[in-house]
Amino acid sequence: MEIVEILFTASFWAAAIRIASPLIFATLGEVICERAGVLNLGIEGIMVAGAFAGWMAVYSGTGLWVGVGVAMVVGMLFGLLHSALTVPFGLSQHVVGLGVTLLATSSTYYAYRLALPEVTSPPKIVAFQPFEISLLSEIPIVGEALFSQTPLTYLAFISVAVVAFILYRTPLGLAVRAAGENPNAVAAQGLSVTAIRMGAVIFGSGLMAVGGAFLTMSAFDSFFFEMVNGRGWICIALVVFGSWRPGKALLGAVLFAAFDALQIRVQQTSIGTAVPYQIFLMMPYILSILALVMMSRRAEIPAALMVPFNKGER
Amino acid sequence: MTPSPVEALSLEGITKRFGALTANDAVSFSLREGEVVALLGENGAGKTTLMNILFGQYAADSGTVRVFGKTLPSGNSRAALDAGVGMVHQHFTLADNLTVQENITLGAEPLFRLRADRAGARQRILDLSEKYHLSVAPDARVGALTVGERQRVEILKALYRDVRILILDEPTAVLTPQEAEDLFTTLRLAIADGLSIIFISHKLHEVMAIADRVVVLRHGKVTGGVNTKETDKAALAALMMGTQTETPKVANASPGAPLLTLTNVTTRNKGSAPGLKDVTLSLKAGQIIGLAGVSGNGQAAIADVVGGTLAPTTGTLDIGGRKQGNWSPRIAVQNGIARIPEDRHKTGTISDFDLTENAILERYTDAEFSKSGWLNWRAARNFASEIIQKYDVRCPGPDTPIRLLSGGNMQKLILGRTLEANPNVILANQPVRGLDIGAVNYVHSQLLAARDRGAAVLLISEDLDEIMTLSDVVHVIYDGQLSPAFTRGQKSPAELGLWMAGQGYESEVRDAS
Is A289 among the domain residues? Predict the structure, then answer.
């Protein structure tokens, strides 16, 4: 079977990990927001903004890591806007989230046109290059798949561990989780629900923007319109798939990416010539929906997700 | 222990308004170290509001709070906690999906620290729970705990932070008598350690049992302060109510024609709650029929059948002699059945709707309130205002969201809405649960008045005293089976207790066969 052969090639898994990286950053960001009780539908637009901001910074002459920082700050600014409207003012998280996505996307395109009015094809930058970790990268299959990636992919995996540690092992993480479970409990212990929720949304939005920046600074070396292409929405589903847990969300992202990498390769086999290619394009989404249905039955949704908190109201 | 002369807390001139409603009006009182002060008052008297101000959850419009001589900033729970004030809320502030330990340590340590000392925290929780007889498992999920256990977690939360003043808001309302005893044991241990306690309640015997001093609130004002040694229950009730209260005198009524009859009705079990088993029950005009029983023995099923939300699986239901084929809440309302639901928050009202909307919930399609599909808001608003006035619903006005009302006032609106429809049959399911004496007497006298007008009242309650005082006829329900009808005074409480424990039904079956 050709499909089975594909599953045992290192290049297939390397591609899966690469495709998963931006999803990992953004899903992680969304997990943080939702754990604190705020649904952030600004994710799609924030990824677009991050993709552009990081790339533009590097194109203007800064270093790659500075570019990542710029993307993060831009994401955090949109997070500030989102959380200011949804947390202290308690506006609808759906409406604000979609609004932020529309605003971030369109203002990014506007900024692109302002910055590069005369170009027909977008200029390229020198993107992050694969960095082979000595010894580990020599392990067959696993070495090439996991340890010959760009530094941003390593950062994505490290972020998962760091965020999981903070959420489950530190007083701050406990406060964030409690804010998403019962904000009254947080307030009764003398903590500020507003500060915790806003902080979580701002930091989470920063991670989403880094996910976007991965596309322009690591996966590709240039910025296109429509390049985020619904990845943000996939991440919203991955959060549910991962039961709001960083580790499981990582697993979900890799699984989705593996479907995606698989369908590209299957198109080139003998089956691919017999079946219309659109079917293969649908595959990752259909399989994700199936996986989601199976996994999310036991998911423990944060009890106060999307419930605004107003101090002093009865 | 006798209280020391050190003043732990003083409130001076606290005033708080919600819209047009003044919840606290220049309230002042003080608390000494090691003293237990009970804050007594009717529902809506402003007790909880006052304590929420003290604990920094509401900001007072004016007045100052001083703890051990230091003035607390207004509306800041953190400052209150740091000053040593802890509060056990009536509606627990716990996160169900977190563990006991997580709930207790939340906010007790600096947020930005790399590692939480979990072993140390765990040990401290275990020490405290042993010292104060508050047994809990630190690793249990709070959502899996019983109400009594949750309350222990709430108390531990406060003790964990070394509070010197503990506020308990209606702590016994959710407890069984045994659990309430355990709570008192814990509180006595805490007092012996020099803690000062503010105990909010409207149960007079508890107040007499635990408090050194009683401060009475009425309509948001302090109306009295007495030492418990120098007073008694009757005097306290008078202070709380403003007038000497009497329980309504109940005369026997002569029943009229059957208005609603269930014949051999059986329904399916619903989870662990039993359905009805071959129940025959006749509700006659001018009669209060009491349904006694331990909760969860089929009361819900009988209420659902009468209220229209549940159709019998077998058996028949007839109203005034007409057999009902279809059965739904709408049909029930149209046939003159009115309901006082068991849970006024969940099924009785829609909390974000205002009083006007809640007043016409069951009858918005009546010609009185709508014409060819258009609501007549003027009529609805007048109707709501009428209820507010006639039934003494204390609120800023008919446009207030009902969630802002206290439980007693909410119940008065429901009662008004029910009785103003001039129903033939009134289903009163736990009509006085959680209400203070004044509201209880009021609800009871209104039900009696409805009976005297010729309505049939089905009274479901877990309070045997209430059942025995009001009912002309008593049935006991056990595991979905209904006892024979006992007339007023036919059975003693002890005899009814046996029926409630399930004795008698089998012999009944044997007799019938």
Answer: yes
Tens digits of residue pLDDT in B41-59: 876 778 888 998 999 888 8
Residues above pLDDT 70, as percent of chain B: 94
Residue A307 lies in a domain: no
Q: What is the ipTM, given to two decimal places?
A: 0.86
Tell me: do B364 and B321 sit in the same domain. yes
Give the domain range for residue A61.
2-113+150-296
pLDDT at residue B243 is higher than 50: yes
Q: Any idea what the CATH number is for the domain that residue B491 is in?
A: 3.40.50.300
CB within 8 Å: B82 and A190? yes
Provide the pairing of β-strand B473-478 with B481-482.
antiparallel
Pairs of residues, one from chain A and one from chain B, whose beta carbons lie less than 8 Å apart: 94
Phi, psi at B426, each rounded to 5°: -115, 120
- B187 in the same domain as B237: yes
From B89, B96, B111, residue closest to A175, measured CB to CB = B111
CB contact under 8 A, A191 and B96: no
Q: Among A63, A67, A309, which residue's Cα sits nearest to residue A193?
A: A309
Q: Look at residue B464 and tell me if it is in a domain.
A: yes
CATH of the domain at A203: 1.10.3470
Hey, is B205 helix, strand or coil? helix
Structural domain containing residue B38: 7-241
What pTM was computed for the model?
Answer: 0.77
> In chain B, which residues have their Cβ closer than 8 Å to the Cβ of A312?
57-59, 75
B180 domain-assigned:
yes
Residue A126 to residue B71: CA distance in whole angstroms: 62
How many angstroms separate the CA of residue A44 from the nearest CA in chain B?
Answer: 29
Q: Is A298 on the interface with B (CB under 8 A)?
A: no
* Chain B contact probe: residue of A162, A174, A307 with most B CBs at under 10 A: A174
- Count of positions (residues) in chain B: 513
Contact A110, A102 (CB under 8 A): no
